[in-house]
Amino acid sequence: MANTFNLKIVASDKVFYEGGAERLTLPYIDGGTVTYLANHENTVMPIAVGEMEIKSASGEIKSAFIGGGYIEFLGNEAIVVCVSAELPEEIDKRRAEEAKLRAEEELRQHQSQVDYIATKANLSRAMERIKVKNRHEV
Fold it and tell me: Which of 13, 83, 87, 70 is nearest to 36 (CA)?
């Protein structure tokens, strides 16, 4: 157990994961990723929209879509609070592709800056869901 930490991932609609973990890799706002291991320094960091990977204490590796949020790592415990978290099999690819097309059409129209930013965020989430689903399709 010395090489594990407690992890809880809370999405806006559910507790996505709760248990021990050896490793957690999250998308970072600079376009890269950040990996957390046991005894990581205390930190609070933002999370971008993208794919996360959890290696549980039992060694099982689970990939999932994460819809942005933040992580707090404190005293060998990590809490991730995010907008959404979905396993690849939970992603409705057709729905994500429709959301992508809708957002692309909205971007072609004249919008306020606030609407433009929201539409870009919608497009980003849809594209990342499609990437995660495509990467893990059988």
Answer: 70
Q: DSSP letters of 3-21?
A: T-EEEEEE-SSSEEEEEEE
pLDDT in tens, 48-95: 999 999 999 999 999 999 998 999 999 999 999 999 999 999 888 899
What is the Cα 21 distance to its own chain's centre?
A: 16
Evaluate whether 88 touches 136 at the Cβ level (below 8 Å). Answer: yes
Spatial CB neighbours of 45, under 8 Å, sequence gap ≥ 6:
28, 34, 70, 71
pLDDT band at 119; cut points 50, 70, 90: confident
From 67, 74, 79, 70, select the one nearest 124 (Cα to Cα): 67
User: Is 80 exceeded by the pLDDT of residue 46?
Assistant: yes
Contact 137, 88 (CB under 8 A): yes
Q: What's the average model confidence in pLDDT over 36-44?
A: 95
Cα-Cα end-to-end distance for the chain: 33
